[in-house]
Amino acid sequence: MERLGTVWAAEGQESDTLEAEKLRIEVELENLAKIRPQKAAATGHQKEVEQLRTKPNESSLRRQVPELDVLHPEKQRIEVKLENNAKICPQ
Q1: How far apart are CA 16 and CA 24, in angstroms?
Q2: Which of 14, 20, 36, 72 is the 20 to 30 A CA-CA neighbour of 89?
Q3: How many CA atoms lie within 13 A of 81 on its CB side?
Q4: Among 52, 18, 73, which Cα is nearest to 10's?
Q5: Global pTM?
Q6: 21-70 per-position pLDDT tens digit
Q7: Which string of DSSP letters, residue by residue, matches 57-87?
Q8: What is the SS3 assignment for 90?
Q9: Do 69 and 75 touch, CB atoms closer than 8 A?
């Protein structure tokens, strides 16, 4: 009878351990289900921020190009001469 009690106690402990492990895994799965959409949203926001950071650089470059044209009015004449020279003396 004593052996039977020991076996039941061991099975009870094993059952409790398995139940606790099951509960822990369910909680982890639930947390993952909550975290994944948040991670995806954060990644999307990060990409958007990077794009917004590069846009000012692009627009400032666009503004600088006309300024360079104003500073160098001979630019077009030089470009035309270079094109003509390239046609005359192809490499």
Answers
A1: 12
A2: 72
A3: 5
A4: 18
A5: 0.42
A6: 999 999 999 998 988 888 888 888 888 888 877 776 665 655 555 555 55
A7: HHHHHHHHHHHHHHH-TTHHHHHHHHHHHHH
A8: coil
A9: yes
